[in-house]
Specification:
- This protein is α+β, with helices and mostly antiparallel strands.
- The protein contains 1 helix and 7 strands, in the order E-E-E-E-E-E-E-H.
- A hairpin with a 5-residue loop joins strand 6 and strand 7.
- It is elongated, with a radius of gyration of 25 Å.
- It starts with 7 loop residues before the first strand and ends in a 5-residue tail after the last helix.
- About 15% of the residues are buried.
Length: about 170
């Protein structure tokens, strides 16, 4: 059987790796579904989505010069329907600060920002908006508080610069 780019085929999961899964295709050939092509949602662990021997529908994404076949499960299936508010919720991903998802800093509560997460599909964490911080409720009061803190930090910075310039400049 001739396999061509763009074809949608039925295959069977042959083996699972940390970077994806190998799929046996009709005619005995096999291809790789990279971890990024398994699901429309973020995949941390391939085994959460696939098992060896499972039948899957795949789309042939590319075939390289060496004859290796790259496959996609998510391109072979339509994306799940978006529900109202789905754009505000996303799968948790590690960030540069070592936390999980979102841009809000850890403000206490459960360990590792647990106050900002809830358990989602198959036990994975799903980002949830943080609680409103304690303090002034209206915008003007919050803005005034921010400006005062900013002015204070700026004056501290200027004082530090003056002290270092008196000692002979930069080191």
């Amino acid at each position: 059987m001739e396999i061509s780019v763009g074809a949608v085929l039925e295959g069977t999961i042959k083996s699972i790796t940390k970077f994806g899964a190998f799929v046996t295709l009709p005619g005995g050939r096999s291809g790789l579904v990279h971890i990024s092509e398994i699901s429309h949602s973020y995949v941390t662990n391939v085994s959460d989505f696939l098992t060896e021997g499972q039948a899957v529908k795949v789309k042939v994404v590319s075939i390289d010069e060496a004859g290796r076949i790259n496959l996609s499960i998510k391109k072979a299936t339509p994306p799940p329907p978006r529900t109202q508010g789905a754009g505000r919720e996303r799968q948790s991903r590690p960030d540069f600060r070592g936390g999980h998802g979102g841009s809000a800093p850890h403000t206490g509560g459960a360990p590792h920002g647990g106050s900002h997460h809830s358990t989602g599909h198959r036990g994975r964490e799903v980002w949830a908006p943080p609680q409103q911080p304690a303090g002034p409720a209206d915008f003007e009061a919050r803005l005034k508080q921010f400006m005062q803190a900013s002015d204070s930090k700026l004056s501290d910075l200027k004082m530090t610069e003056k002290r270092s310039s008196r000692r002979g400049g930069h080191r």
